[in-house]
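EI: anyone free to look at a 371-residue chain?
SC: sure, send it
EI:
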Amino acid sequence: MFSKSSKWQCLAFIASLVFFIKCNSLESVISPNQHTKVYQCHFIHSAPTIDGNGNESIWKQAKWSESFVDIEGAKKAMPFYDTKMKMLWDSSYLYILANLEEEHIWGYVTEKNIPIYKYGNDFEVFIDPDRDHHNYYELELNVLNTIWELTLEKPYRNGGPAIDPTNLPGLKTAVGHNGTVNDPSDVDTNWVVEIAIPFQDLYDYRKNYTRVLTQPRPIAGDIWGINFSRVHWDHEINNGKYQQVPNRPEYNWVWSQQGEINMHAPEKWGLLMFTDSTYQEPKWRENKVRDQLMGLYKLQEAFKKENGFFASTIDEVDSSFLKLPYVDKLIINSDGEQYEIMAHYKSKDDQEYILKVDESSLLVKIPNTNK
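SC: here you go
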């Protein structure tokens, strides 16, 4: 797949990498993401009714998440309306309940599968079951329970494209509210979103799953990438109707901060951990290696911007040179236009794996069969 590069390119890579380490602080670039949120999702034996109320006793088995924050994180003020979510799962569905505080509940989009966030407030779900950063699912819906579903083959930064629409046949959604909808004369309290996403419909999003799939549903111990976003617009009243304030950007409030105004950086999403009565919390070795590889992906992007090509072939890089915890061996193959970085590491149970990332940010895990 890859051709050999010249000696000067190899030396250029080493020199440039050292430069980036000094200038960009390698530790801050490739250290594990300290802002990633984790949600432990409990298994249930009786399903909630998806009616937009969210008041059934089964939901008491789930804990509310932390309050949503600004998408850019601590550099911005906390949202002035509170948003929380909770999740449960059974053999067929992932269940999501969200509570959105709101003094003025409004929304006018009734046409399915158009970009709802452009025209009013919405709630959004992003799911990457195999955590490979490709082929992930997005759902948006507003207070009228109008939905937009799409699939990203790759993040927009890597060229997409979006498969729009992508409607899951078994999806269930409902929206409730405490207050009135599209009535500026009063003050409302909140709106509630309730969702059931069928595992069967998400099966094709697990092409690079880290274990052999024998059924559509996950098992206890599986970890998916997930995040939630709430788009909120400042509004004004015109002829008795709400409308967005012209030339004013929207607010983006999220569960797990992205550090930038971009939901399509899936390596920054939170983690959904499926649990049951037998589940034991994992050690985070693999997650740290993933973060380190994505840090190197960013260094490669910076290198290409500076030099016009990706870093040249290095058959092996000493792991102590890059100070990567848990990594036994790091290999970078590149022909200037494409590259692949492979990290050899041992899991908590001493199983050997390879995590690899390429120029499209595709990140996959495979067993190390060449020991």
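EI: The first strand starts at residue 38 and ends at 43.
SC: 👍
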